Amino acid sequence: MENNYKKWLALVAMSLGTFMGLLDVTVVNVALPALAKHFNETFTNLQWVLNIYTLVLAISLLIVSKLGDMFGRKKIFLLSIVIFVIASAINGLAPNAMALYIGRGIQAIGGAGMNSLAMALVATNFQGKERGVALGILGSVIGISTASGPLIGGYLVETFGWSSIFYINVPIGIIAILLTLAYVKETPSYGAKERVDFGGMVLSALTLFSLIYGLIQKEGHANWGWTNMNILSWLIAAVISFIAFIWVESRVKQPMIDLAMFKSRHLIGTLTVAVALGISLYSFNAFLTVLMQNYLGYTAFQTGLRQLTISIWSLILGPVTGALGNRFAKNKLIGYSLFIGAIGFVVFMNAMVTHLSFNQMWPAMILMGITNGMVNPLLNSAGLEGVALKEMGLTSGLINVFRQIGTTLGVVGLGLVQSNRYESYLNTHMTDIAAMPASVAKTLTKVLVDAGPFAGHGIAFSTRMSHTPFAAGLQTVVLAAYSAAMRNITLVAAVVLVIAGIAALTLMHGRQRSVDATQ
């Protein structure tokens, strides 16, 4: 009984680490206005508070996962929490924006270790049916931490100021450290006598950095074409680094990643679902937040409160999915749950009328939440089935990396879909506005297109525009353009989830396979 009690306290420690690491991906979003005012910086510059965390997190995930496998996951997990806590304190005390950027980069290194190693530690600290339940609970933590950033961030910023979103990590981190020291079992140092594959680590970092940075450049400059050298050069660098990585890994005796892993259809299916979740559900959070704040007029806290319609399902369904996964084929549970999310996006698409209200949105958000609450926990446990204990850290790192890449691809890709439809609608309908001269329509169209869909509401409903004779017509067109753009986004997200559902059903295996046999 005592040992069982200690296991669940260990799960609390790992869940706290995961929660902090993923929460800090989104929690900063709502603090940007306060940060801009405090540091007297533009929003464009302060986007690097978000981007630097995304970049460093992506390039660190595989490296810290491999180091955990080699030298002991508990050690690296503990070190990651310490790094995260120290960096959080530095961020709260940051005297200028540059110090905050550096602190966020350091914080992301700790976040990478907490996110990827927690899953592997759960898999090695629990056995049998308990493992499925524990991974389900951890999966629910992953889902709710990603979705609850606006709520928690909004409350902290409005109540205690921007620095509180960083300071809150200090006491939580200390609790996680103490619980980890007391209750989490260490894993063997599988590669303590092996040589560290520095070449593979450097090339994997270069590949991910170049890819993510190139996509971030595209996100920040929607008017740049893919052939613009500021984007294309980074994408080419990613391809070259990736080819070099494959070449090195296929020739070294003790590679960072055993390329034979990718012969597994099950792993390919798992990573496909991870990417799809990022492209659809996780990236959509950014567009949903803008819709609620910029177009519906909710505060950050009110937005986060309503987004609980999505995130609460992770808390409800996490433990349930563990039990279901022990009884039924996981690939079918995952596949059919992804189809539910696709239906949710279609429902959202049909709800996107010009004058939208939350009452029209919540049925779709519930369906999205059920998908998130079901798939995340099941994906974690299914992804680690049949994986040798010595490779569990790296495998969980791969799942997290692909989820992160998917989120970045989604923000960029869905953003381009939104911008193109928004621009097309404005070009077609601005000239139809009564009492608006053709020259004014042309100028305003360019202003709205250059500002982008996120800023359109602020321009159309500004005090200056409200006093013009064509104000009502302009506002109607801008709202309609934004609604049309959002409908296109939700349609694309639905298609992505359908493809992922098919991949889960056809590529992933359904029944649990022994881990011990693959040691």
SS strand fraction: under 5%
Biggest pleated-sheet summary: none
- Mean model confidence by pLDDT: 86
Which architecture name of the domain at 1-191 does CATH use?
Answer: Up-down Bundle
Task: Supply the helix-strand structural class.
Answer: mainly alpha
Q: Give the helix level as a range of percent.
A: over 70%
Class of the domain at 1-191, according to the CATH hierarchy? Mainly Alpha
Individual helix count: 21
Report on the structure:
This protein is mainly alpha-helical and 519 residues long. Among the domains are: 1-191, MFS general substrate transporter like domains (Growth Hormone, Chain: A, Up-down Bundle), CATH 1.20.1250; 195-253; 421-486, no CATH class. The protein has helices at residues 2-26, 32-39, 43-71, 73-92, 97-125, 128-147, 149-160, 164-167, 169-183, 198-220, 229-249, 265-295, 300-306, 308-327, 330-351, 358-384, 392-429, 438-451, 453-460, 463-466, 471-507. Helix 6 (128-147) runs antiparallel to helix 16 (358-384). The chain is globular. Mean pLDDT is 86; it is low at 514-519.
